[in-house]
Design a protein that fits this description.
mainly alpha, AhpD-like, 10 helices
């Protein structure tokens, strides 16, 4: 039994759909292994589920290198900062805030360990979880401009949504 399968079995009966979806979104996808596992791990970190993140990392290491995992953690932590900042600017809607420099370091976005497009996809998934419209639009544009399909974007967000739901179900159980 894989680490993720063990976690899936911990999900309560009330989360049966989530348990089934978690398996499906990771098995049937247009994403590469690096994209799938990077998005899944970044999403679990963003959802603040240590148990789920550890299980995903354990299973991911059979298919991807440690750089993908490191990029996933970096994407989640950078988006934890950026999503709050840019969501604030967007929601306040004042030009005065739009013209201020964020003065926040985010060099890792430009220099990930792996593929820049894959890192942007991880950032998109985390931004969807965190609900930052500005960041979602920016990262979606970046991945599509890098040659990814809308199917890949869609599958990444499906993974993020399901991992987030699993984290919620684990927390409540």
């Amino acid at each position: 039994m894989t680490a993720l399968e063990a976690v899936r079995q911990e999900l309560p009966e009330a989360a049966k759909d989530v348990r089934l979806n978690l398996q499906a979104v990771l098995e049937q996808s247009s994403l590469t292994p690096q994209q799938k596992w990077g998005v899944a791990v970044a999403s679990a970190v963003a959802a603040r589920s240590t148990r789920l993140a550890e299980a995903l990392v354990a299973d991911a290491m059979a298919e991807v290198d440690a750089g993908v995992i490191d990029d996933a953690r970096a994407a989640a932590s950078l988006m934890a900062m950026n999503n709050v900042y840019y969501r604030f600017r967007h929601m306040v809607g004042k030009l005065s805030y739009q013209t201020k420099s964020p003065r926040l370091r985010m060099n890792r976005i430009a220099q990930p360990l792996g593929s820049k497009a894959d890192f942007e996809l991880m950032c998109l998934a985390v931004s969807a979880i965190n609900g930052c419209e500005v960041c979602i639009k920016a990262h979606e544009k970046a991945v599509v401009d890098a040659g990814m399909s809308e199917d890949q974007v869609h599958d990444a967000v499906r993974v993020a949504a399901t991992v987030n739901a699993a984290a919620t179900a684990l927390f409540a159980s």
